[in-house]
Amino acid sequence: MKRTHADPSGVLTGKHFLDGDQACCEGALAAGCRFAAGYPITPSTEIVERFAQRVPQIGGMFLQMEDELAASIAIQGAVWAGAKSFTVTSGPGFSLMMEHIGYAAMTETPCVFVNVQRGGPSTGLPTLPAQADMMQARWGSHGDYEIIALCPNSPQECFDLTVHAFNLSEQFRVPVLVMMDECVGHMTEKVVIPPAEQIEVYPRRYTTLPPAEYQAFKAEADLVPQFARAGEGYHFHVTGLTHDEHGYPAMNVEPQRRLVTRLMDKIRCSADALARNEEYRLEDADVVVIAYGITARVAMRAVQMAREQGVRAGLLRPLVVWPFPQKRLRELAAGKNFAGFVVAELNCGQVFYEVERLVAGHVPVLLEGHTGGTVHKPEQILDTILRCANVAAEVSR
Amino acid sequence: MTEEQMIAAAPEGCGECLPPNPVEGFLRSERMPHIWCPGCGIGTTVNCFARALLQAKLDLNKVAVVSGIGCTGRVAGYVNLDSFHTTHGRAIPFATGMKLANPELTVVVYSGDGDLISIGGNHFIHAARRNVDVKIICINNFTYGMTGGQLAPTTPVTAISSTTPYGCYEQPFNLPNLAESAGAVYVARWTTYHVRQLTHSIGEALRKKGFSFIEIVSQCPTLYERRNKIGDGLDMMEYFKESSVVKHGAPTREVGIGFQGPIVVGKFVDIERPTFLDLMDKQMTRTLDAHYTGSVVEQNVRG
């Protein structure tokens, strides 16, 4: 599939001073998104507020819906009409959107969901950060399915990864989740938006087949089917029921196996290619901190402090958290004898269990969890790094 | 004579001698037989819808049908158009996104009373309030058929359902009144007995600009009639025939339906009101003037 460049009308090229929410909005516009539906919820609302202000001047609309159930399906109606679209929410709204994340996965509707994570459960801490929706992002809708989830750690990355999210959603025809957090959303920093011709955009996989030959859910070699939009004479059918290649309901064991396996495999088989990690001082590290989003910035400081104390620490930061970069983790674990891995996250252990599963028996894994409401103090992560190093030292004595 | 015997007795080549069914091309014949029970009214309404569409001479490539979940939710799967079988209760917001992203489409929501008015009730009133230009065809069979005949927001007081085994004691919604109150510009009610009037009414709704609502009172012989001991599909048609009163322009607050009581049918509302997109364009133009670039359709058509 030939990549194209961004439509310049949506690209605010230049150096800006933006918060993560605003940068996320600019990323969506740069990616070609011209339709958003949402329901106000702190701390995500600024994204659609900006969208509502910007998009009528570049050919699009923001639709404030009556609730998150409506917002998360209105965007999908818009996608099947030909728009690129997204919705934006936080904790309680994300919970309400779960059924439609499953619907998008099942119907292979390319769309983006942004969750600016706040403290939970329930209403929790509306104005304060957490990273406790990571497993919900992965498993929150019922049934077996795969999604892609990205975690930016700065306003710049809110821009970059939102563009990336739209591209991945088009490439894989899957809902892509941008898992921000309140801190990243409300932090203001320099954001550089490149010229449109330097922003790659993955075009929708519109079918070139005539209607008589087109099968709406017949996959190509990369397990992704070609797309047809409503209004062009294809007379296709889309359903959340288990369906065959025509898109018609086929509710038996074999069609279920074929469809669910393909929906999982189109992501799983591309997991290595999807991985994007930032690595800091891993070459000689004895302790590896694994952190994503805002926590990775605190962890960076903790790693530097550990180094100042003579402990060789390093940082692995996945930008794509789902699918998890398991190949890199396993490579690392097999490469040498580490004192241990420390998973730092603003929850009571979510990605931690994924890391533990991958390296169990090779590397001890410690959790530096946090119930949210603020970010870690670097000293908290440092303590766990030191504990990890000391335990290993004692064992080796 | 059983159906098999009838088929066996039919002379060979007979099918070719028959005049072609005018709605055949409108249906996905490869998906027949459909799932609806013998005596069910939904198929009758689909026939009326097909005829109305054909009579309206719309470009069928520009018509999309959106359904929710339930027996009526299966309509989308049988019509040979762009069709979307969405989630339970969410056909209207899906249709809203679709229509606003490409206003060239005629978007028809075809679903049941439980789907549109119970789980989807919030979306129903808000889409009516906004006057989104979608057509709502609501099959009201007084019950949840697909799940086995439970209480619906339309079940008449005293009627038996599987979850009101001693009789319903909740007041049901009066759907035309709800639609009118929320802002619908076209509101009509017919029964599956009134096929000509219904076909005409669907045609009017297809031509109407704005949120248009047609309630079709229908029979569910398997789960509603049987459980309430009021006969089969034919008996229900008799009831519709005997108990329906045509009252065009009737005040919608007076058209509630009691158990086996009179059914007021007709066209109740047909007014003009600017649609969501009309008002958006007007307001944006007033505020942004030349900076307003119009809605998303331009971009979508460009691809």
Topology:
The complex is a heterodimer of chains A (397) and B (303).
Chain A: E1 4-5, E2 14-19, H1 20-30, E3 35-38, H2 45-54, E4 61-64, H3 68-80, E5 85-89, H4 91-107, E6 111-119, E7 125-129, H5 134-139, E8 148-150, H6 155-172, E9 175-181, H7 182-186, E10 188-193, E11 200-201, E12 237-239, H8 253-268, H9 271-274, E13 277-280, E14 287-290, H10 294-308, E15 313-318, E16 320-322, H11 326-335, E17 340-344, H12 351-359, E18 365-368, H13 378-396
Parallel strand pairs in A: 3-4, 3-5, 5-6, 6-9, 8-9, 14-15, 14-17, 17-18
Antiparallel strand pairs in A: 1-11, 2-10, 6-7, 8-16, 13-15
Helix pairs in contact in A: 1-2, 1-6, 3-4, 10-13
Chain B: H1 3-9, H2 14-17, H3 42-56, E1 63-67, H4 75-78, E2 82-85, H5 91-101, E3 106-112, H6 113-119, H7 121-130, E4 134-140, E5 143-144, E6 150-151, H8 175-182, E7 186-191, H9 195-207, E8 212-217, H10 221-228, H11 233-243, E9 244-246, E10 263-270, H12 276-288, H13 297-302
Parallel strand pairs in B: 1-2, 1-3, 3-4, 4-8, 7-8, 9-10
Antiparallel strand pairs in B: 5-6, 7-10
Helix pairs in contact in B: 3-9, 6-7, 7-8
